[in-house]
Every structure is written in C-alpha cells, then in structure tokens.
Amino acid sequence: MHDHPHDHDNNLDPMTARVRALETILTDKGLVDPKAIDAIVDTYETKIGPRNGAKVIAKAWTNPDYADWLAKDATAAIADLGFTGRQGEHMQAVFNTPDQHNVVVCTLCSCYPWSVLGLPPVWYKSPPYRSRVVLEPRAVLAEFGLTLPETTKIRVWDSTAEVRYLVIPMRPEGTENMDESALVDLVTRDAMIGTGLPQVAS
Amino acid sequence: MNGPHDLGGRAGFGSIAPEADEPIFHAEWEKRALGLTLCCGALGYWGIDESRHARESLHPHDYYGSSYYEIWVKGLERLLIRHGEVHPDELSKGHMNTPGHATAKRLDPQDVPAVLARGGPADRPATTKPAFQIGTKVRTQKTLPAGHSRLPNYARDKQGTIIALPGHHVFPDTNAKGVGEAPQWLYTVEFDARDLWGDAAEPGTSVTIDAWESYLDAT
C-alpha cells in the first residue's frame, strides 16, 4: 500500500485520504520509513496489552514480597517482568482494599499506562468519562456495573503528569487454590483501570 | 490555558457507553496515525509537552468534533508545519515539494523495539530540596497561564494534601514552549471531593492530581 505516490481519490474517506497523503509526503521526504510504522503497530497489536498488567497483578496476589516491591517501586517491580518503556516510565501501583477503591483517569488528554495495559479504549479517551469520573465516580462506576458499598471510599487518580497508575484489584474470593498463571486469566483490563473487578473464579 | 481538552467536571457529554470486545484500532488509518506520530516524534523537534499543546490548541469546535486519532493527526500536521518539515501547500496537494531536513534521524524499523522499550523518562536530577512533604496542606494556584499547563481547571485555587512525592520532573509549561525543561519537584495532591465540588460531591470520594511545585503554595 506504500508504493503508489499519491492517492487522494474521492473513493477514500476523508481521514484515510488525509493520513495516506501525510504518510506519502513524509516517506518521500525521507523522514518516515513505513516499515517502522508497521513495527510500531505490530507491537501494540500483538506484544503489549493488558495481559502484561494481568501478569503483574497475579504475581502480586501470590507473592507478598513482590507486592511489597510493587507498592514501594512499581517501575522497578514491573520492569522485572520485562514491561518497560513508553507511557510506563514512571509507574505507581495503587492497591484496592475493602475500605478504598481506586480508579484512574486523565482529564487533560488520555494518559494511560501503555507498557502494562496497551493502548487505551475509546471510552477512556473520550469526553464523557474524562469529564464525569472526577465529579461523580460512584455514578460512573455504576454505569460500568460496579456498585461499591458507601463504606468504601473512592480515590480518583487524575494522571496530570508522567506518572502512570496501575490499579491492583483485590484477589477474588474462592481463588485460594489457583496458581499464578490461572489467576492471570481473571484479571480484566477494566479491573486495572478501576472501572471493573476481576472475574470470579469459575 | 483552559482549552477544550480540560474536561474534568464539565457537563453535557452524555453517557460513557463502553464498546463490547472493542478492537485495538477502528480503521486502518488509525494505525498509520499512531505510527506516524511516534516516527515523527523521533525526529527530535518536539517533546510530549509540545505535542500535547498542539492538540489542545485546536479550536474547541474542531477538538470536540474530532476522534482521538483525528486530534493526533491534526496536531501532528501543525507540529510539522511549525518546525519547517512540511508546508501547508504540500498537505493540500498531497505530495512533497522539497525534501526533508531531519532525515538522519528517521526511525529505522529495527530500532523500534528499543525506542519503545526506552520511552521518554521525565525525571531529572534534583538540585533543590522539595518544599513540601507528605501531609503538607497546600493550595493550588489561581492564575490561569496563557500557554500549556497541566493543572486542571477544576483543581485551581483549591486546598489539598500532599500524599506522595513522585520525583523531580520536567516542567511541561516551559518545555511545551521549547524554552527549557526547568525541572521541578512533583507532588501527588489529594483533594476531598467536597473541596472541589461542594454539595455536588459524592460522599466518601476524593481526587488526586500530580502537581509541580510552582503550582502550589503552602496554606
């Protein structure tokens, strides 16, 4: 798809045409190698996603020393599992308890811990979530099907700097006999944003 | 600036509507937009702060009418024009008139894994001691700067409590203008929801932001 010089034909939707023109211009100028774009896309489609974060959570659930490390220096503890880099340079793990639930947002743009969760879903990046979750977190969580007791405080972390927050959900009851790899499958993306809980053991 | 991006507490955007089994990308052009943005970042003309400011400087009508990756593409075009790598005529015609300048910095495909794994850390060595400690009560600044700021409007002129010191980080307000990183101590500040929203606050809720030292005064 990159070997034609210019395709601005009216059979393309406006954004396809606009981005294709930009890629063509930048490639011809020698500023962009389309294969580098392919490599970036492949990374976030196949290598970096919420499975990374789920491995962090499952390890924290099964290894108290790791959980302590995660609480004290999340960047290093997460890097120890091989998850580093862009939009995960400065990590902070925030632990849910029966008294305190955590939920993450970026009201100013769409900051999100790419290194452990991959690219954010559209709802996370869109005005309804960004505008409302700081004002009415209980109502927003209820829309996600998560109703917390009034005795559970909610802390909303607005990622306004380069610190990226990973919610560590509580280990579900009934999972005492599950090993780390089985627990990974219970950890959902939304549980690590704070808009959901882990799946219950089947 | 209190631009269209500064969304915390604003009304009227409707329900959240998460998509079931959402794909990572919704169109092929979104993939190319992501890759182009990262590849052009590697050219070294701008950092994350300037790129954020380019996006939030879109006219509100344009910002609210654009999807996430549309905003990225529009911001990228502005940055490329500002730094002299693309002329508006080239964008309107769809082909280049003059060769690129920073071609020596073109991101090679084999370097992509290392570049993504390295990221762009924002912490810098400290030459001062932090002015505040965990537990210090602070008030956020009232003044709304004209340029880039990472202090959300809903958290201006509000009292909160320092709960963590994440480090000594590049100051976005200056870095976005290209006038220096001017690193400062960064603080995580927690606000009781009642101090932000008054009687509209939900019981038992709080909000934190990460705020640079110059955003804060001791109370």
Automatic annotation (TrEMBL), chain A:
Residues 15-195 form the Nitrile hydratase alpha/Thiocyanate hydrolase gamma domain. GO terms for molecular function: nitrile hydratase activity. Keywords: Lyase, Metal-binding. Pfam families: NHase_alpha. The keyword Lyase applies. It catalyses: an aliphatic primary amide = an aliphatic nitrile + H2O. The keyword Repeat does not apply. It is an enzyme of class 4 (lyase). It comes from the Bacteria. Its EC number is 4.2.1.84. Belongs to the nitrile hydratase subunit alpha family. This is nitrile hydratase. The gene is nthA.
TrEMBL record, chain B:
InterPro entries: CN_hydtase_beta-like_N (IPR049054), CN_hydtase_beta_C (IPR042262), CN_hydtase_beta_dom_C (IPR024690), Elect_transpt_acc-like_dom_sf (IPR008990), Nitrile_hydratase_bsu (IPR003168). Its EC number is 4.2.1.84. Residues 121-217 form the Nitrile hydratase beta subunit domain. Transmembrane segments: none annotated. It catalyses: an aliphatic primary amide = an aliphatic nitrile + H2O. One of its GO terms (molecular function) is nitrile hydratase activity. Pfam families: NHase_beta_C (PF02211), NHase_beta_N (PF21006). Residues 1-104 form the Nitrile hydratase beta subunit-like N-terminal domain. The keyword Transmembrane does not apply. Keywords: Lyase. SUPFAM superfamilies: Electron transport accessory proteins (SSF50090). Belongs to the nitrile hydratase subunit beta family. NHase catalyzes the hydration of various nitrile compounds to the corresponding amides. This is Nitrile hydratase subunit beta. It comes from Parasulfitobacter algicola. The lineage of its organism: Bacteria, Pseudomonadati, Pseudomonadota, Alphaproteobacteria, Rhodobacterales. The gene is nthB.
